[in-house]
Amino acid sequence: MSLKQSGAFSTVETYYNDYGQRAKELNREGKKVIGYVCSFVPLEIITASGAIPFRVRGSIHEPITRGDTLLETIVCPYYRSCFDLSVKEKYAFLSGMVIPHGCDSMVRSFSAWSYGLPLSYFHFVNIPSVCEESSLEFFGSELNTFRKSLEKFTGKAITEENLDQAIRVHNENRDKVRALYEFRKTDPPLISGTELTMTLTAGSSLPVEESNSLFDQALTEVKGRGNSPLKKGPRILIDGACLDNIELIQLVEELGGNVVTDTICNGTRDHFPKADADGNPIDALAHRYLDKINCPKTYRSNKAGTFEGDIENRFGDIGTYAREFNVDGAILYVYKYCDPFGFEVPARKVYYQSLNVPLLHLEDIYSAGTMGQLRTRIQAFLEMIG
Amino acid sequence: MTKVVILNQGIVASIIGPTGPEQRRLANRVMEEALEKISLSFSDITFIVSTGYGRINVPFSDKQITEITCHARGIVHLFPEARTIIDIGGQDVKGIKVDASGKIVDFVMNDKCAAGSGRFIEVIADTLEVPLDQVGERSLQSRNPAKISNICTIWAQQEVSSSLAEGVSVSDLLAGIHQSLADRIVRMVSRLRVEPSVIVTGGGGKNRGLIKALSGQLKQEVLVPEEPLITGALGAALMGKEIVEKARQYNTPLETKERILEAVKIL
Fold it and tell me: Which residues 6+ apart lie within 8 Å of B191 measured at CB?
C-alpha cells in the first residue's frame, strides 16, 4: 500500500517522515514548543498558554543507545526510544517537556528526563490512579498547578477565555478525526489505516489550528475519492498503547487486512473524547482527561460487582468500536515491559471472547527488526479469520 | 531444511533438503530433485504453494500460505482426531488449536528467542559433543535429570559446561535440557487450553527424549507423524490441491506462474 503522492497526504508524509519540521520553524520564529508524551497531558492548557504542544515520538528504526546509559532496560522500549531520541537532540527545538503519571516508567524516569535534557521548563502532571469523586477534585487543583507553572514560564496569565477557546479548537480537532474515522466504515474503507494513523501522528507535531487545517485537507481529499485504496479484506481493530510508527499497520494492510479502527493513544484514545464546552473549563478538562480517556493506567473500581460487568465497564469502548466499525478480528499489540497493558492482557482476552471477536495478541520490542516475525503471526491470523 | 511434497491422489514424492545462507537460491534444486525422483517435468505440476520462513523466496510458487495454516492442514489430514498441534522447529515453536472440523481456532508462537526452540537442544548437544540424532536416546538413559535453571541458551550452555566439570553425567544433563525445553513449550501451549489428541510435529518430533518429557508434563499421550519434517509441506500441497479442485468445480481461472524452475536472483 503506497500513499497517494498528492495534496494532503503528501504533506502528511512530509511531516511524518521529518517529524518536528514545523515545530523547528516555529521555534526559530520565537514560539515556545512544549514536548509531551502520553494521552494524559492536558493539551488545552498548553495551547491556552500560547505555547505549542508537541507529541514526542520514538523511532523503531533507531537503535536505543545513549538513552540506555541513563535509563534501565526495565523501562518499556517505546518510552526508552522517545527518551533516547530526546537525549540525542532530535527534539532540540523544544522549550520544555511535560510528562504525566501515565505509567510507572513515566513516573520513575521523570528525573532522568529533567537531568538529561537541557530544557528550561519541566512539569510532571500528577494524574490520579483511580477515578472517584475525590480524584476529580484533586485533579482539578493539579491542573491549576500546571496552569500556574506555565503562566510562570511564559510570563502570561492563562484566562478562562483562553481555556474556553483552547477547548473549542481542540474539540474541533477531535471532530475532524471522528469524521476521518467515518470514512473507515465502508468496505473496503475509503481511507487506509496507514494513511489515517500517519495523518494523526503528523497532526500531533503541529499547532492545533494547523493540525485542523491539515485534517480538513485530508477530509476533502478522501471525500473526493472514487475508489478505496484498499481491497476488501478482514476488518481489523488495533488495540494497544501508542503506535507512533506506522510499520505494524502497514504490514497488516500489506498482508490483506484492513485496519478500520483502534484503541491506540495516537488514535481513538487521544482523539475521541471531547471536553465539555460549557461550564468551568478546569472541571471539564479534569473530567475529560481522568474519566473520559479510557486507559488501563486508571483503576476503575468494580461497580457492577461481577466479572462480566467489570470487563464491560473497563473495555466497553472496544465493543463499541468493534460493532461500529464492523470488525472481523483484533490485534492486541503490547510493548514488552508495558505495565498498564501487560497486567490487563488476560482480562482483555476474556472480553474479546465475550464479543466473539478473534484476537491476536502480540508482544513486541519497538524495533523494525521484529517485523519479519510478526509477519508470520499476522498472516496466519488473517488466514484463520479470512 | 527445505522440504518438497508432490501430491496427486496421495503423496507421490517428498524430499528434505538442507537450508543454508543460500536458501533463497535452493528451493529450485530441492524441487528438481523431487521431480527427478518420480520422472515428472516441472510443467506437470498444476499448482505450487510455498510455506515457512522461506515462503517469500520461492519465485515459482503460485501462492504463499503460512506454516501455521499448512501444518494444521497437514496434521489434520494425517490425524483427523487432532485438536492441539505442537510444531517444534529449529527457529521457533508453535502451538495450534483446531476444532472438530480441522479449522484453526487459535495459535501461539514463542516470541522470546532461541531458548524456546529446537535450537536450544542443538546448541547444548554441540557443547556436549553428542550428535543431534542421539540426544533423545541418550537423555532416556538418565536416572537423575539435572536441573537446568537458565532459560537463555547461552547461559544454559555455560551452566551445562560447569555442571559437566562438577561431574554431572551427559545423559543427566541431556535429560535436564529436554525437561527445561518441554517446560517452556508446555507453558506456552497451555495458553491454548490443551485438548487431546495432541500431535507433535517438526524436527522436535523426531527426538524421543523430548516427546517423553512433553507427554510427562502434559500428562497425556502425544502422537507423532511418521515423517514429522514434512507435515508443513504436505499441508501446503493439500491446500494447493483444494485451490485447484475449487477452481475446477466453479470453473474459475487458476492463477499460476509460468513453470520456469530457476534460482532467485540475489541482488
Answer: B95, B108
DSSP code of B252?
P
| 325-364 of A, contacting B, C-beta below 8 A | 362-363
Answer yes or no: do A384 and B107 touch at CB < 8 A.
Answer: yes
CB pair distance less than 8 Å for B104 and A384: yes
Q: What percent of chain A has pLDDT over 70?
A: 98
Q: Which domains does chain B have, with CATH numbers?
A: 2-68+230-250 (3.30.420.40), 81-224 (3.30.420.40)
Residues in chain A with pLDDT < 50? 1-4
Question: Cβ contact (<8 Å) for A373 and B111?
Answer: yes
Peptide bond into A39 cis (omega under 30): no
Q: Report DSSP state, residue A66.
A: G
Distances (CA, A) of A252 to A92, A256, A308, A383: 34, 7, 31, 12
- pLDDT at position B76 is 97
Nearest residue to B120 via CA among B55, B84, B173, B164? B173
The pTM of the full predicted model, rounded to 2 decimals, is 0.90
Contacts of A379 in chain B (CB under 8 A): 66
| Cβ-based contacts under 8 A for chains A and B | 28
- Are the C-beta atoms of residues B191 and B111 closer than 8 Å to each other? no
Q: Return left, alpha or beta for B219; rule: phi > 0 is left, psi -120 to 50 is alpha, else beta.
A: left
Domains of chain A: 21-162 (3.40.50.11890), 228-385 (3.40.50.11900)
For helices A208-223 and A193-203, give the axis angle rounded to 10 degrees: 160
Interchain CB distance below 8 Å, B111 and A376: no
Q: What is the pLDDT of residues A213-267, one digit of tens each?
A: 999 999 999 999 988 889 999 999 999 999 999 999 999 999 999 999 999 999 9
pLDDT of residue A2: 46
Contacts of A377 in chain B (CB under 8 A): 109
Mean pLDDT of chain B: 89
